[in-house]
Amino acid sequence: MSGLRFAFLTTFYPPHNFGGDGIGIQRFARGLVKAGHEVTVIHDVDAFNALHSGPEPTAAPEPQGLEVIGLRSGVGMLSSLLTQQAGRPVVNGRRIAKILDQGRFDVVNFHNVSLIGGPGLLRYGRGVKLYMAHEHWLVCPSHVLWRHNRELCTGRECLKCQLVYRRPPQLWRGTGLLEREAKHVDAFIAMSEFSRQKHREFGFPRDMEVVPYFLPDPEPAGVTADSPSPHPRPYFLFVGRLEKIKGLDDVIPVFREYPDADLLVAGDGVYAEALRAAASGMPNVHFLGRVTPDALRRYYDHAVGLIVPSVCFETFGIILIEAFRQRTPVIARRIGPFPEIVETSGGGELFGTREELVAAMRRMQGDPAHRERLARAGHEAFLARWCERAVIPRYLEVVAGAARRKGDRNVLAKLEVAA
């Protein structure tokens, strides 16, 4: 094969993952394989099992050219705890080094490395080295800039915040370890312009490129005559993990005074019981639980709009482009990367107050032509900016730029052949 050999290192990878970052990493890996490259993913099964209850999930087959290596140390949670505290791959370091040495990788891409190796992992491997910031872990021990589990972080109170989250303080963060190890990385990637600016605001010293998330090609078909609505009444849709930071506390009460449509909640999580209690006695709020991808597309297809009420600083907003793919407009909170995505696409509206949310809902439901304009704009922006064929070349441009700065002619030659 004439393409590049990539190594992806990450704590979580499907099915051993909890959120959208693992799925996003899998899409990048599969997209590179489709583009003619080879990818080996190294992830930490111990870290997943330390945070997961119930039987371990079974991995689905990956396409040819994509190898997945799950690390199992034999000491379980202790391995993750040592990494979290020391900021280095204490238990798995030798095995990771051996895999990277034997693999002769052209590009080593670090993703969420918090429990697979911490900042000490960044010196491992040769070739062009990238770091992709799926969360704000580089500047935040809790990853999400949600201070004391109750408010947006506008200034560092990290020790107190970690204690509130009941996580052992990471003493290495005060030693300069991250700054020293970051020098081994040739390019850092943020998932949005907002996230790049937030890293800079919180003191991360390196410049960052922007490469957004994407959804695979080809795009699914939209609504057809053979696709009846999965719900008998008009509805707005919420999709995501049920956590306090996702903002549904502000949305559910709105539907007590909005009888014209239902709210369908697709997802599950630790905050589900509290949200169900908040919706008690409300016949127009329905909790769907976990929904399969095929079923979820039908819910997108027939929704009046997708409501995205997160109250924290996310790095992107992949739910928005999922809606755009299905020609579903969005109503997103005016926070984090959402204004960037909505204003760039023209595929929805923004809100900051309950009154703005209700007004946007009424416009979208009451004016079909307005809704259709938003839906069409969002879909066109998805095709131009956030589908696989748009983003994978952008990612490879970052690889090429890092290779030029590093003087790696081998990587540049292979990219030229693959193109």
Can you describe this structure?
The protein is an alpha/beta fold and 419 residues long. It has two domains: 5-216 and 388-418, Rossmann fold (3-Layer(aba) Sandwich), CATH 3.40.50; 235-386, Rossmann fold (3-Layer(aba) Sandwich), CATH 3.40.50. It is 39% helix and 16% strand. The chain has 16 helices and 15 strands. It has helices at 20-34, 45-51, 77-86, 93-103, 158-164, 177-182, 193-201, 248-251, 272-278, 293-302, 318-325, 338-345, 354-366, 368-386, 388-406, 409-418; strands at 5-9, 38-44, 66-71, 107-110, 128-133, 146-147, 151-152, 187-190, 208-210, 235-239, 262-266, 285-289, 305-308, 330-333, 348-351. Strands 3-2-1-4-5-8-9 form a seven-stranded parallel β-sheet, with helices on both faces. It has a six-stranded parallel β-sheet with strand order 12-11-10-13-14-15, sandwiched between helices. The protein has a two-stranded antiparallel ribbon with strand order 6-7. Helix 11 (318-325) packs across helix 14 (368-386) and helix 14 (368-386) packs parallel to helix 15. The longest helix is centred in the last third of the chain and has 19 residues, at 368-386. The radius of gyration is 22 Å and the shape is globular. The two termini are 13 Å apart.
